[in-house]
Each structure stands twice: as C-alpha cells, then as structure tokens.
C-alpha cells in the first residue's frame, strides 16, 4: 500500500489508515504562494498521520508542467495531480477516515465544506488582497473590515460548538486557523480583538501539536497574551429571559482555556521530530534519550549514536565529531548501550538507508553512564539489554528494564492506546467511570479462588501464627474488617450498584485470582473492563461489546501503526489483516446448543481432534473448542449465547426454558474467549433461588438483592480481560509479556 490509498469499507474504515506504507506525498508549491495555503495542508497531514514532502517550485512553469491549471500548489498522488489548496487539503484529510477530518457523515461533510468556503471567501480573499495591495490604503481598509466581520461571524458560531464543524477538529479548522493566523500577522485584526469564543477555539487548536509545530510557538504565545490573567475569556451573557433559568450550566468546552499553561518540554520528542521528516531539515533541536547502540568510526574521531526516547519505535542517529561536538569525549566514554544523553544539534538529511533525517550534534551531555563493567565501572558488559536478540523469557526476568527493549516499549505504547481508547469509547457514549473496591467480602464468580486480606498474621514472619478460631475454623470476626475479606475477582457487583442509579457505568481496574495455574493465559493479577447498562437486554449487551472491541482494535490500527508493523514482523505474519477482519466483519451469533452440535459433527467427520473429547451439552467449552469455532468453522469472531445455567454465575438472567441463562461469550481467533457477559437477573425472587442453588446465603448479598427490591430494571453488562485484548492486538502469545509486572504462582518480583 502507498500513502495515498483511500479505503472505503462499508462497515468500518477506521482501521484502514494503518495499512498505508511509508511513501510520502509530494506537494509542489509555487514561488511566492501565501504561506497559509501550504500550512493548512501540513496541519491536516499531521493530524491524519500522512507523510508530506514539500518542495518549492523554481518557477510557475514547473507547476503547470504537472497540471496546466495549477496556481499555487500541486499535490502528486498515485491517481494523478491534485491542484488548488482546498482540494489538496481535503484529499490529504480524507486519507485517514478514522480522524473524520472531512466529516463523519453527509451532514458533517456539508458543515466542513461550508466553513472551508467561508474561510476562502470571507477571510482568505481579504488577507491575500491586503498583502498584494499593501500600499493601497483603501484596499487594506476594506480587507480589515472584511476580516473583522468574518471574525464576528466565527465568534457567534463557535459559541455553540467546540470546533467549526462540531465536537471534533476537521479540515475546516485546519484551513481557518491558518488563514486567521495570516490575518493576525498581517495586522488586519489584533488577537485581543478576537471574540471570547473565537479566541477559545483558536487556542484549543493551537494546543494540538499538529497546529503548534507548523504555525510555531509564537502563534500560541500571542494568543495566550490576549487572555485576562488567570482566567479564560468569558462569553457575552445572553439577554435575560422571562422564563425560569436552567440550573444546569453549560460546560466549558476546553479546560485548557481556563488557565495559562506553564509546562513545556525542554526537548523535542522523537515521535514528533521523526514525524516531521524532511520538513525538519535545517532546524536546531534538543533531544534526549537512551543509547541503543554506539559505534566509532574514523579511528575514534566520529561517533554514531542510535538514540531512542520511548515515544516511538524508531530511533534517530546522532553523529558526533571530535572537533565539532562539545562533550565528545564524555559521550565516547559513556559506556554505550543504556547510557542516557541530551543532544543539541542540527537536523540534516540522512544518507543512511531506512532513515530520512539524522542529527549533527553540536553539544552532547551525558546524563547517566552505563556502569556495567567490573566493579560497576563504566561499560556495557553486564547491561541486560545490549544489542542482540533477546527472548521474551529473558526480558521477563528483567521486567524493570524491559520497556527499553523494542518489544517491551511497543507493548507499553499499545497498552496505553487501548486504555485510552477504552475510556474514549465509554466517555463518548455517556458512561460514568466508577472506581470499585479492591478489597471485598463478595465472591462475584463463586469460584472461591480469592486472595485473603488479613491482619491476623503476626508481623514476625518467622513465627508460626496463632490464629483465633471458632469451632475449629478461623474466627475472622477478630480480623481487621470483622469478617473474612479478599482481593476482588471482579468489580461487577459493585459497579451494578451505580448502574441501577446512574444508568450507564463502567469500571476499569485490577482484579485478582488465586488460581494456581502456570499457563500462558493466566495471571494472578490482571485488569478488567466491566461496563453495566441499565434498561438493556442481552442483545443490547452484545451490540455494545461488539462495538467496543471493534473500536479498540481500530484504535490500535490507526494509532499504533508502526508498533503493529513491528509485531507483525516478529513471527506474526498476517496480524494486521486479522485485526482488520475483526473490525470489518459482523460477529456471528451462535446458540450454545448449536455450537455443541457443530463441534460434534466436526468430530464425527474427522475434521476436529480435541484433547477434551467430551463435547456434550452442559460442558464449559475449553479454549481449543472455542478457537476451532472461530478459526476453522466460522473464520471470524463468534458470539456464543444462552449457556446452560449450571456453568454460569448466579446473577445471570434465567431464560424462559429454565435450563439456560441469557449469557454470552465473544470468541476471537487465536485467543478464544475475550469477552464474557450477560443480562443480569432483575427478579429478586429468582436471584435468591439461584444464589441458594450455588451455595450462597442470600443474606450475605442482601445489599445486592436490594437493587432488585427497590426499583428493579432490566440491565446487562460484560467483562473483558485487558491483557487478552493486548494479546489480540499485538499477537504476543504469552500473557506475561503484555503486562508490566506479571504476578503468577511463585513469582512476585519487582
């Protein structure tokens, strides 16, 4: 795939942008073309994660040679040239549909086009006219009035929305911010004269790196000076209404407009620097990071340092010369791999293969040497991550340094993206994030495999404890909580309490299982995402779970393209195609009873051979059965529904047949079950009977029953093991390699 492939899958197009190759688009700019015409295309490219190579044409003939009617810019694509700046802007913005820069639907696209046209006719015409006829006072005067009127129109429109076309930044914002910056630089309007809503929007955009890196820090600084000290611009108060005023105040669109930011990095992250590519050539930058490799050349007079700061998979090469780099001797003696450096230097084109730019170091500071030599002297002899192939098992034993490895850092970035996507998904749909307790007296799963929390053990660990007992059993009434308490196995029961009061909630936190299992699929400590939805059925629950899983996978494809490419190259062929299929394919709904029948037929025909051959109605399917259904029979995600009640939890809603419950599991290839959920039992009497049938005393969960006693509603929810989601998206096969510090039987290091 090349960079300008446009994907138009009908079910979803969010994941497709991640499949573009590294080839940049070429933008040829006419001599003397207004700066804002290229800036808006650059901003859109940065937001869409499109590589853009900008070249200044020698003369107009060079432009018209590519396209006869070209005026200011020509964008070269695989399908031919695209001219006119707005057309090029929309083309670039449309290459990554996940960003929705051109609008999410027909109405959204119409709003984007409306404001693009407004920016051209109401602002750009005036800005260009004032610059072209700078000595003509009449023209400049009319242009000034036109710009000021356009700004009043923008201010009024932005009182109702965060961005021009809605609640997400769009191509229209890219264009209008850039031309407004041109108007401010041309003194057609002062920053202090911008209306409060317009100033808020302008600052919100400039806070995004895609805008600030291209328009420069001066643009944001000038706008910040226009803010009253310590507070954001206040909107004009609407005329008093005779009707009773609403007690609900409108939320501030962007909290950043309420204060003047003071934090700024003293360095540029490599992700942003490398993202600028050839456009960064000529810039003086400061970077910092850790040495991956250091090699000498020219008899030790030149150093080539591969530096990485963890912001992205790629590193940057730093070239140091003995006669041109201050601090050269210190860098040479830093110990090599693992040392930390601060580098100031000039960005130049790199002659090396596979890298666009490198840094010629002007000054280098050693922040920390690698002391892996004998007696902790400087050297990398014992540095655990010296440059060579390391097995995942080796990295696991050095979990404190594992994030410095390529696979370790890629996993961390992927976890971050998936965690962010989780909150993003539920917050966008109005869910409330609830913190559920880690210490509990309830066993949600009824499995009994819980870690006990107690203070009955003596502080002197070498002494045998003398525990209080009653009738030969531990008397937990003497314990800290006055009863037996454990680490939670699930936050579900607790989050349900909020869902039946606040409608839609979710929890995302650590859970614990004292299961003595050393398989590649189990941990003693892991993270769970557990939403609960009121006024919902099993069908609603399935739809929410499918949407959520697709959203997370699509987010990984769009936001972690380089890391997924790395994972795919690590013996994971076809990873991105598998993820793409999950996003694009409707999940198959399959009754548990039918699944048993399908498996039995496959076994009888000799196509399926399982270790557990007892495939009969009523069994809890093993991973091998689940994977066979998804990988061999249906070749995609499967939702199994309506399980036998005896293999599911007591709180799942009993179906009319009295034998099954309204439960569901989502199965995916290579993983098996990734989501488990159900409609919850909303009948108090049925819930109590089900609790008794599994050996629970209804009095012990009286509070849970009262959720049904006082205003019961149909509700549903599901749970997803976060580490299994990371395994799915990375292709990593051992769950211990996708969590920073795995806790397993016999292992609690770090």
Reading off the top of the CATH hierarchy, the class of the largest domain is best stated as: Alpha Beta
The overall pLDDT average reads 88
State the distance separating the first and last CA atoms. 43 Å
Largest sheet: 8 strands, mixed
**Could you please say which CATH topology of the largest domain applies here?**
BirA Bifunctional Protein, domain 2
Low-confidence spans: 1-22, 230-246
Rg over CA atoms:
30 Å
What helical percentage do the residues reach? 25-40%
Q: Per CATH, which architecture of the largest domain?
A: 2-Layer Sandwich
The shape, in one word, is globular
State the total count of DSSP E strands.
22
Annotated CATH homologous superfamily of the largest domain: Bira Bifunctional Protein, Domain 2
Spatial strand order of the main sheet: 10-16-17-22-21-20-19-18
Strand content: 15-25%
Tally of distinct domains:
3
């Amino acid at each position: 795939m090349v960079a300008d492939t446009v994907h138009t899958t009908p079910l979803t197009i969010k994941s497709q942008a991640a499949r573009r190759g590294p080839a940049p688009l070429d933008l040829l700019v006419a001599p003397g073309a207004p700066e804002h015409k290229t800036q808006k295309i650059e901003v859109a490219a940065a937001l869409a994660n499109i590589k853009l190579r900008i070249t200044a044409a020698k003369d107009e003939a060079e432009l018209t040679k590519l396209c006869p009617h070209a005026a200011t810019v020509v964008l070269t694509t695989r399908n031919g040239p695209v001219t006119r700046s707005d057309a090029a802007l929309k083309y670039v913005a449309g290459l990554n549909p996940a960003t929705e820069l051109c609008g999410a639907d027909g109405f959204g696209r119409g709003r984007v086009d409306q404001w693009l046209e407004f920016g051209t006719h109401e602002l750009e015409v005036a800005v260009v006219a004032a610059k072209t006829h700078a000595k003509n006072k009449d023209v400049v005067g009319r242009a000034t009035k036109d710009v000021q009127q356009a700004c009043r129109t923008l201010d009024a429109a932005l009182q109702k929305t965060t961005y021009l076309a809605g609640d997400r930044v769009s191509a229209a914002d890219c264009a209008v911010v850039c031309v407004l910056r041109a108007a401010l630089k041309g003194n057609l309007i002062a920053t202090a004269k911008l209306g409060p809503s317009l100033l808020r929007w302008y600052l919100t955009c400039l806070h995004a790196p895609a805008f600030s890196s291209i328009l420069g820090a001066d643009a944001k600084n000038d706008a910040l000076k226009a803010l009253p000290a310590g507070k954001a611009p206040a909107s004009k108060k609407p005329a008093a209404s005779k009707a009773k005023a609403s007690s609900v105040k409108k939320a501030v669109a962007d909290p950043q407009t309420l204060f003047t930011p003071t934090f700024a990095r003293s360095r540029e992250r490599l992700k942003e620097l490398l993202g600028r590519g050839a456009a960064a050539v000529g810039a003086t930058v400061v970077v910092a990071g850790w040495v991956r490799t250091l090699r000498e050349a020219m008899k030790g007079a030149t150093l080539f340092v591969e530096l990485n700061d963890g912001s992205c998979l790629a590193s940057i090469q730093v070239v140091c010369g003995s006669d041109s780099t201050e601090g050269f001797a210190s860098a040479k003696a830093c110990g090599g791999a693992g040392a930390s450096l601060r580098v100031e230097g000039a960005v130049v084109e790199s002659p090396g293969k596979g890298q666009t730019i490198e840094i010629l170091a002007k000054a280098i500071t050693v922040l920390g040497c690698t002391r892996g030599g004998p007696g902790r002297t400087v050297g990398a002899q014992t540095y655990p991550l010296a440059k060579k192939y390391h097995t995942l098992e080796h990295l696991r034993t050095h979990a404190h340094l594992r994030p410095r490895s390529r696979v370790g850092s890629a996993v961390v970035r992927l976890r971050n993206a998936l965690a962010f996507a989780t909150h993003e998904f539920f917050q966008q749909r109005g869910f409330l994030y609830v913190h559920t307790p880690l210490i509990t007296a309830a066993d949600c799963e009824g499995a009994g495999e819980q870690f006990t929390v107690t203070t009955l053990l003596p502080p002197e660990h070498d002494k045998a404890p003398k525990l209080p007992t009653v009738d030969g059993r531990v008397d937990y009434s003497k314990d800290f909580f006055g009863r037996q308490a454990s680490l939670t196995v699930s936050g579900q029961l607790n989050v349900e309490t909020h869902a039946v009061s606040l409608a839609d909630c979710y929890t995302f936190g650590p859970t614990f299982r004292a299961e003595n299992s050393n398989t590649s699929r189990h941990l003693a400590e892991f993270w769970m995402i557990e939403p609960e939805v009121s006024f919902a059925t099993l069908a609603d629950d399935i739809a929410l779970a499918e949407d959520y899983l697709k959203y997370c996978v699509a987010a990984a494809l769009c936001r972690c393209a380089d890391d997924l490419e790395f994972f795919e190259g690590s013996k994971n062929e076809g990873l991105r195609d598998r993820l793409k299929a999950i996003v694009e394919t409707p999940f198959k709904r399959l009754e548990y009873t039918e699944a048993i029948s399908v498996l039995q037929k496959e076994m009888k025909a000799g196509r399926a051979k399982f270790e557990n051959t007892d495939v009969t109605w009523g069994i809890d399917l093993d991973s091998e059965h689940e994977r066979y259904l998804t990988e061999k029979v249906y070749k995609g995600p499967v939702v199994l529904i309506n399980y036998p009640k005896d293999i599911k939890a007591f709180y799942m809603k009993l179906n009319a047949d009295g034998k099954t419950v309204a439960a569901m599991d989502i199965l995916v290839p290579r993983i098996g079950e990734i989501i488990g959920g159900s409609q919850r039992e909303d009948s108090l009497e049925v819930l109590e009977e089900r609790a008794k049938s599994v050996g629970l005393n209804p009095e012990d969960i009286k509070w849970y029953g009262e959720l049904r006693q006082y205003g019961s509603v149909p509700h549903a929810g599901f749970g997803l093991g976060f580490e299994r989601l990371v395994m799915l998206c990375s292709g990593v096969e051992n769950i211990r390699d996708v969590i920073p510090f795995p806790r397993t039987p016999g292992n609690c290091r770090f």
